[in-house]
Amino acid sequence: MTESLTVRDNRTGLEYEVPITDGTIRAADIGQIKPAEDQPGLAVYDPGFVNTASCRSSITYIDGDKGVLEYRGYPIEQLAEKSTFLEVAYLLIHGELPSREEYDTWVHNVTYHTFVHENVKGFMEGFRYDAHPMGMLMASVGALSTFYPDASNISDPETRDIQIIRMIAKMPTLGAWSFRHAQGKPYVYPDNDLSYTANFLSMLFKMSESKYEADERIVKALDTLFILHADHEQNCSTNAVRSVGSSQVDPYSAVAAGIGALYGPLHGGANEAVLRMLKRIGSKENIPSFIQGVKDGNERLMGFGHRVYKNYDPRAKIIKKACDDVFEVTGVNPLLEIAQELEKIALEDEYFVKRKLYPNVDFYSGLIYEALQFPPEMFTVLFAIGRTPGWLAQWLELTQDKEQKIARPKQIYTGARTLDFVPAAERWA
Ligand SMILES: CC(C)(COP(=O)(O)OP(=O)(O)OC[C@H]1O[C@@H](n2cnc3c(N)ncnc32)[C@H](O)[C@@H]1OP(=O)(O)O)[C@@H](O)C(=O)NCCC(=O)NCCS
C-alpha cells in the first residue's frame, strides 16, 4: 500500500491525496492545492529550511536523537579511530572505501597537486597585513577558478575529478599561507614527502630548519579533527555549496560560497566562543555563578546544545580523547579543567538534562587548536580544510542528480504594490 496524506482544503471543501515517499511529501503536490484555478497554489513557509528536505543524498546519515553520525554508512567512531583523513575523503567522494591501488593513486594525486600557481602566491601577498585568514582562503579558492577555466565544464566526469583532487590538495596550502601572512612570515612550499596533515603542519610552522618534523601524536590528532569535520549533511555551508552549485557554476566558486557561509559565527565560529567563555569564567570557583547566569537566561553555555543532536554529539566524545593526546605533547591547557568541570555539572543539572543539552563538537576543539598555537581566526580555516571533501562530495552528487534544479525558493511578498512613480525632480521640487 502506498502511503499518503489526505488533505482537505477548508476554503473550497476539496480533498486531495498527497503521496508520502521516504517520510516526505513533495512541495509540488501541495502546489496543486488552489483556492481557485487562476490563483497561486499552496506553498510551504520554512525560513532556515528547518523541516524541508532539499535533496536526496547517500553521503552522510545523522540520527540526532541517538547521537549517530555515519559517512557512507560507516560510523564516525570507527573512521576516526582506524582511518585517515585522505581515506575518508576518498570514501566521501567515491562512495566506497578504496582498494590499495585506488588509495595509493588517490594519495599520490592529492600530494602531487598541493602546489599552487606562483601567481596565487603573488595575489595572496597583496592582502592587507592583518587580513583575516578565512577571508583570504575564501578569496583564493574563488580565484582558483580563473586558473582552471576548464573547471566550468562540470558535465565532464574527468574534469570534475581533477578539480576535486586539486581542491582537496591545495586547501592546506592556501590555509597555511593565509596563516603565515598575518604573522609576516614567508610562505612555506609544500613538502610532498610528508603526509597530508604533516605537510600542512610544516607549511604552518616551518622556519629555518631544512625539514619540519611534527610530533606524530599531533599529526594524528589533527587528522582526526579533519575526519570529524569532513561532512555533516545539509548544514549551512553545504547548503550554500549546493545552492550556488545548482547554477552550474564551477566547483571553486561553489566551494568559495561554502567557505563564506562557514565564516559566519553561527556556523564555524562556535569553538572560538567556547574559548572566550572559558577565559571569562577564569577559574573553577566561578562556575556555579556562571551556571546560574545560564539558567536565569543571561548567558548561554557555548559548546552545548545542537539543532540536530539531542544526545551527546558523537564527535565531541572523540575530540575529548584527542585532547588527551595533544595535551600529552603540549602540556595541559589550564582551561581544560574548567571545561571538564562545566561538563560534569551540566550533565547532572536538571536545566540541561531536561532540554537535552549535551556537549557538541565545538566544546573541546577550540582547546586543542589553542594548545597547537592557532589563533582563534584560524579555527574556521581548519574547519574548512576538513569540510572540503564533504562539500565536494555533495557538489558531485548534485551534478549527477537528475531531480535537482537551480535553487530558487519562493517568498511571501510583504511590500507595497502598484504605486505610481513620481520622478525625483518632481518629488523634490
Ligand atoms: C546550537 C544551538 C543554536 C541549537 O539551538 P536550537 O536547536 O534552536 O535550540 P533552542 O535555542 O530552541 O534551545 C532549546 C532550549 O534550550 C536552551 N538552550 C539551548 N542551547 C543552550 C545553551 N547552549 N545554553 C543554555 N541554554 C541553551 C534554550 O534557551 C531553550 O530553552 P527554553 O526551552 O527554556 O527556551 C544552541 O543550542 C546554542 O546556541 N548553543 C550554543 C552555541 C554552540 O555551541 N553552537 C555550535 C553548534 S555545533
Overview of the structural elements:
With 429 residues, the protein is mainly alpha-helical. It has helices spanning 27-31, 76-82, 85-94, 100-112, 118-125, 133-147, 157-183, 196-205, 216-229, 236-245, 251-263, 270-281, 287-295, 314-330, 335-348, 350-354, 362-371, 379-399, 424-427; strands spanning 4-9, 14-19, 60-63, 68-71, 74-75. The model has no long low-confidence stretch (mean pLDDT 95). It has 19 helices and five strands. It has a three-stranded antiparallel β-sheet. The chain has a two-stranded antiparallel sheet with strand order 1-2. The site of coenzyme A (COA) has 15 residues, from loops. The site of coenzyme A has 15 residues, from loops.
How would you sum up the major sheet? 3 strands, antiparallel
- Runs in which pLDDT lies below 50 for 5 or more consecutive residues are none
What class would the helix/strand composition place it in?
A: mainly alpha
- Structural Rg: 24 Å
Query: Mean pLDDT, rounded to whole units?
Result: 95
Helix share, percent: 40-55%
State the separation between the terminal residues, measured CA to CA: 71 Å
Bound molecules: coenzyme A
Measured by DSSP, the beta-strand proportion falls in 5-15%
Helical stretch tally? 19
- How many β-strand runs? 5
Spatial shape: globular
Q: What sequence of helices (H) and strands (E) makes up the elements?
A: EEHEEEHHHHHHHHHHHHHHHHHH
- Biggest sheet, spatial arrangement of strands: 3-4-5
